[in-house]
Structure formats: C-alpha cells, structure tokens
C-alpha cells in the first residue's frame, strides 16, 4: 500500500486530464447544437453542487472550519474566476475554433502557473539546484511540445483503425473557422487560461485557511451557479428558450462536465495541491491535448499527423522532467518534516510536568502526522 500510495497523485492528475479531454469533445458537440455557453456553465455547476453537497455535509462534518468573511470573499473570487469567467471564455473561444485548438491553447497553463507560483513564493526555485532546472526546462518543454502539436503538421500517418473511414471533420472545421475567428478564439482562451491559473493559485492559498476540500468544492460550485446565472440572464436577455433542456447531448454535457470536471476536479486538485502544490497539478495539463488527439483519432477518425506525434513526445519528456524535479523536491522535504516532528515531541516532553499528558500529546502528534501521510496526494 505504501508504494502504491506514492503513485496516487499521478493517477489522480492523469484522471483529471482524461476527464477534461472528454469534456472538450462533448462541449464542442453541445455548442455546435446551439447550446448557450452561459446556460451550460449554470447547469454544469448546479449539477456539481447537488452531487457533491451530500458528501461534504456527511464526510467533513467534524473537520469543516468555521466560515469567516475573509474565506467567503476568497470563495466568491474563486467562483468568479473559474466557473464564470474562465469557462465562458473557454467555451466562446471553442465556438470560434475547434476542441483540439482549445485544448492546445490551454497548454500555456503550466508556464503561467509556474511563474505566478514562483512570484507568490508558493513554488521554490533555486537556479543552482538540478531539481529546479528540471522543473523550469520541463515546463518550457511541455509548452514547446504543445506549440509543435498546434503549428507543425507534417505527413499524415496511416493508422489501421482510420484506414478506409471517410471523415471530413477537420476539413469542415477549417472551412468554418477563418483566420479572424482563430485570432479571437485564441485571445479569449488565453485570457481564460490566465484566469484559471489565478484560480489554481488562489485555491491553494484558500486551502491553507479552509482545509476542507469537499466543502470548498461545494461552495465554489454553489456560488459559481449563482454568479453564472446572473451572467446568463444579463448576456442572454429575452431568450427564455435557451434554458430548455432535453435528454440529449446538451444534458449529457452538463451532467458530465458538472460531476467530473467541476465537482470531482475541484476536489481532487485541491487534495493534490495541499501537499504537492499548484504547479504539480497544472503540469499535467498538456496531456489533455494528447488525449484529445488520440480520442479524436479513434472516435472521429481524425487524421494523425507526424507533427502531433513529435509534439506529444516532447510533452511527455517535459512532463517527466517536471515530475522528476517535483518528486526529488518532495523527498528532500520529508526528512525535514520528520525532524520538526521529533523536535516538537522533545519540546512537549521537556515543557510538560505531567507524564500522562506528555504521552497523550505525542500520540496526538503522531496521529496528525499519519493523517498527513494518508492524504491522497
């Protein structure tokens, strides 16, 4: 179990990217069918709130911190940054472009998050350390690989599962998307990406004073629903028909995005960030484009170009460098944490005259350490 536990944060981060890749394909289909992006955001977070709230109420009843004005303001800002601003910009940008292009643009997220985390001292960078070199060059490599996947095509690779399958998806998308739409979509997605980086950083900061991941997730989804509803009513004034929803792709998209990409995603990345930091979470985001390209090749029979394969390889190498640097950094911090715990035990034993209280205090301290070690990160 111990060796398996070390891989939990990696499995969780990969799960997030698989979920986001599925959301990209479903969202593009729903938007193409005329669904309003503002309504999609509202339904998405309403569903996430309803699904996640019971778990938060039951599982975090005894550990949920007291709500303060400062924490509530942070939650308001969090729900405005990601559910309202980022997602609407992302969906509108996707309308102007394609799902693959939107996923590709979001690969600048690791670089933005790394820079912001470094400025805010949430991420340590020592330019004389090989670990820091790995994180910096790995982040740059993931962005470079994403750009290669986006800009470089090369010859078409004949894959046995696409041979003979007629598909004009990419050609049709190119015909519908002119240069100006691509520029507008790219700018909107880039701004949304910056907002999401701010969201991740603020979420990491908020968890330090409100360390209840499920409850924080529910609060973000609830406030996001309310704020997104106001935005939808303002932006879609007089269009009551857009709120109608049936048992179709639109409902599936809202349910899937809400449960997987809002409810579970906010919670899982919060759990990971408490121990590994925001850079670790966003370092996996370039995988989303690789997964989208693979899924599109299988499901939509899209053509696979050599440039995409080369870009994917560069992304994997860069991701490995980042994860190697983070893992070495994490291991180097473990002895320091153990020394601090031992020092705390000795200090308790020295300052307490009551031997039974001393023993209880040490047990409590050990249990708190066990809880930290058992966190799924």
Automatic annotation (TrEMBL):
Chain segments annotated as coiled-coil in the UniProt record: none
Similarity remark: Belongs to the drug/metabolite transporter (DMT) superfamily. Plant drug/metabolite exporter (P-DME) (TC 2.A.7.4) family.
Signal peptide: none
Parts of the chain that traverse the membrane: 39-59, 99-120, 132-152, 187-207, 214-234, 254-272, 279-299, 305-324
Name this protein carries in UniProt: WAT1-related protein
GO cellular component: membrane
Superkingdom field: Eukaryota
Pfam family, one: EamA
Domain annotation EamA: ranges: 10-149, 184-323
Membrane topology: Multi-pass membrane protein
Keywords: Membrane, Transmembrane, Transmembrane helix
Localization in the cell: Membrane
One GO MF term: transmembrane transporter activity
């Amino acid at each position: 179990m111990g060796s398996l536990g070390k891989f939990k944060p990696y499995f969780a981060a990969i799960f997030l990217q698989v979920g986001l890749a599925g959301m990209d394909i479903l969202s593009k289909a729903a938007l193409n069918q005329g669904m309003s992006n503002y309504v999609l955001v509202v339904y998405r977070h309403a569903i996430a709130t309803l699904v996640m709230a019971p778990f938060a109420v039951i599982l975090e009843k005894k550990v949920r911190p007291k709500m303060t004005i400062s924490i509530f303001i942070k939650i308001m800002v969090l729900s405005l940054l990601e559910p309202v601003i980022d997602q609407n910009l992302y969906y509108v940008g996707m309308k102007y472009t394609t799902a693959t292009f939107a996923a590709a643009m979001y690969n600048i997220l690791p670089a933005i998050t790394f820079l912001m985390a470094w400025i805010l001292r949430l991420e340590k960078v020592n330019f004389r350390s090989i670990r820091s070199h790995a994180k910096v060059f790995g982040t740059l490599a993931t962005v470079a690989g994403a750009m290669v996947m986006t800009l470089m095509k090369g010859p078409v690779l004949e894959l046995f599962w696409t041979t003979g399958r007629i598909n004009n998806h990419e050609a049709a998308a190119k015909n519908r998307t002119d240069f100006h739409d691509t520029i507008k979509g790219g700018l909107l997605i880039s701004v949304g990406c910056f907002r999401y980086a701010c969201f991740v950083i603020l979420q990491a900061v908020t968890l330090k004073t409100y360390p209840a991941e499920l409850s924080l997730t529910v609060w973000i989804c609830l406030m996001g629903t309310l704020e997104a509803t106001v935005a939808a009513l303002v932006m879609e004034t007089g269009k009551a028909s857009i709120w109608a929803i049936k048992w179709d792709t639109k409902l599936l998209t809202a349910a899937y995005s809400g449960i997987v990409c809002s409810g579970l995603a906010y919670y899982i990345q919060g759990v990971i960030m408490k121990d590994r930091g925001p850079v670790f979470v966003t370092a996996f985001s370039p995988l989303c484009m690789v997964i989208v390209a693979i899924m599109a090749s299988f499901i939509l029979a899209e053509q696979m170009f050599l440039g995409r394969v080369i870009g994917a390889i560069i992304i994997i190498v860069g991701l490995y460098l980042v994860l190697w640097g983070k893992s070495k950094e994490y291991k180097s911090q473990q002895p320091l944490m153990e020394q601090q715990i031992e020092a705390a035990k000795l200090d308790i034993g020295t300052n307490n005259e009551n031997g039974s209280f001393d023993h209880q205090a040490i047990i409590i301290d050990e249990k708190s350490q066990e809880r930290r070690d058992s966190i799924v990160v």
